[in-house]
């Protein structure tokens, strides 16, 4: 029987460039060695502090937005009809109808959504011909690029926005450009950084660069702070994607933002239980006297709460200006929901009220929907 050698590869020896590489390394070692050692000790010190991924400045008040009514309240009548064509990758078609007050004509919007593990695409067109789009692309667990655009025949209302988020282990950096000029750099650019300094405290800033014309350049910087509760044992055991910063979901969060004008926005979010969330928002309004009006020194406090029931979600809100609002989403079946929204402004003696429905249908069979997690097996 013929025998074959275990390996035909010859052991690799030193190359002709090895002496030169060693010489270069010896030249730079007296300078690079201490720098690398200092960085290694600094990195180890940071790891020993138990720092967390703080999120981005844009999502600093994300929990508050989920409780308050700014993104949920509406008036008049609305109907949203969605059809799920595929679950993986997700593909959905939507039809939205709205009927508001006499000053706002009826509106219709057709949209489509496509999403998989790394890509999210959303597009829509309304009755006036305005086209909107949004695209998110995840290049790596720590880097995501977002693009938003709007095309319309109304002068000055078409826009393009490009954004990139980088999530480091203990920090996040974001860059956003609105209507950027490729050749002259004009447009509105926003740079933000948020860094974790302890397991509870994160500090950062957001700089807005307004460059409408090559000869005009204005900058304004605001400073932000975020204080959270400590991670608990359940949060530490949450499974994560390899290479992605561990998620951190605190039971309470307090934020503060100092704007260039001197105004301050402070928020507090508390998760009282699995079904109850409360949020408090305080904003100061400091405006010097000008041609637009007299000096103004005011403050507005808003308190909101969200209750999650088995088949319904209720949001209630009240502010220091005498405005009371509510929003109820009642699901009778997984495919049908009834919406009710209302608001009363006692200071202005005004009110608004809205009702709506949401209907979802699918071309998938019951077995496919159960496999995709859209239905619970009986």
Automatic annotation (TrEMBL):
Membrane-topology annotation of the record: Multi-pass membrane protein
InterPro entries: Porin_dom_sf, Porin_Euk/Tom40, Tom40
One GO process term, biological-process aspect: protein import into mitochondrial matrix
Locations listed in the record: Mitochondrion outer membrane
Function: Channel-forming protein essential for import of protein precursors into mitochondria.
Species of origin: Kwoniella bestiolae CBS 10118
Regions crossing the membrane: none
Source organism superkingdom: Eukaryota
Record-level GO cellular component terms: mitochondrial outer membrane; pore complex
Protein name: Translocase of outer membrane 40 kDa subunit
GO MF annotation terms: porin activity; protein transmembrane transporter activity
Pfam families from the UniProt entry: Porin_3
Keywords, comma-separated and alphabetical: Ion transport, Membrane, Mitochondrion, Mitochondrion outer membrane, Porin, Protein transport, Receptor, Transmembrane, Transmembrane beta strand, Transport
Statement: the UniProt record of this protein carries the keyword Transmembrane: yes
Stated family: Belongs to the Tom40 family.
């Amino acid at each position: 029987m013929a025998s074959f050698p275990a390996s035909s590869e010859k052991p690799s020896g030193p190359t002709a460039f090895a002496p030169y590489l060693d010489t270069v390394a010896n030249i730079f070692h007296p300078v690079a060695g201490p720098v690398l050692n200092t960085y290694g000790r600094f990195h180890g010190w940071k790891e020993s502090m138990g720092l967390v991924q703080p999120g981005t400045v844009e999502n600093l008040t994300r929990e508050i937005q989920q409780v308050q009514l700014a993104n949920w309240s509406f008036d008049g009548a609305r109907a949203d009809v969605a059809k799920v064509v595929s679950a993986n990758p997700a593909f959905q078609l939507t039809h939205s109808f709205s009927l508001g007050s006499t000053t706002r004509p009826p509106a219709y919007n057709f949209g489509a959504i496509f999403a998989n593990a790394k890509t999210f695409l959303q597009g829509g067109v309304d009755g006036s011909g305005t086209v909107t789009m949004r695209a998110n692309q995840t290049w790596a667990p720590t880097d995501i690029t977002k693009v938003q655009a709007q095309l319309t025949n109304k002068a000055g209302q078409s826009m393009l926005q490009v954004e990139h988020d980088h999530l480091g282990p203990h920090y996040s950096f974001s860059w956003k450009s609105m209507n950027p000029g490729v050749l002259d750099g004009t447009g509105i650019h926003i740079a933000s950084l948020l860094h974790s300094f302890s397991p509870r405290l994160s500090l950062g800033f957001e700089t807005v660069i307004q460059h409408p014309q090559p000869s005009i350049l204005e900058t304004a910087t605001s400073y932000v702070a975020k204080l959270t509760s400590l991670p608990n044992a359940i949060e530490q055991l949450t499974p994560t994607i390899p290479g992605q910063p561990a998620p951190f979901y605190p039971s309470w969060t307090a934020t503060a933002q100092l704007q260039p004008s001197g105004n301050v926005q402070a928020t507090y979010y508390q998760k009282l239980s699995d079904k109850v969330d409360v949020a408090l928002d305080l904003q100061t309004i400091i405006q010097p006297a000008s041609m637009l009006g007299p000096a103004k020194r005011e403050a507005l406090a808003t308190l909101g709460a969200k209750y999650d029931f088995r088949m319904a979600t209720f949001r209630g809100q009240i502010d220091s200006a005498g405005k009371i609002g509510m929003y109820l989403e009642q699901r009778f079946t997984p495919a049908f929901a009834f919406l009710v929204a209302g608001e009363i402004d006692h200071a202005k003696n005004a009110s608004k009220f809205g009702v709506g429905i949401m209907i979802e249908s699918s071309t998938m069979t019951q077995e496919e929907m159960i496999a995709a997690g859209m239905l619970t097996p009986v």
